[in-house]
Amino acid sequence: MVFSGSQALIPTRIDCPCAIAAVEPVSTMQPPVLVAMAVYIGKTRLIDNFIYEG
């Protein structure tokens, strides 16, 4: 399925399972940073991750 133009996919739910004791906001990141996410669009769960190199 291909969406274009004004048809945007908006997650209905975002999961944040974390293997660390605390997650706090940061104002800057020093690469490399692992970005991992799981989002729901309707009943479909999408999982992805990547390493941000800056």
TrEMBL record:
Gene3D superfamilies: Pantoate-beta-alanine ligase, C-terminal domain
Protein name in the entry: Pantoate--beta-alanine ligase
Organism field: Anaerotignum faecicola
Lineage: Bacteria, Bacillati, Bacillota, Clostridia, Lachnospirales
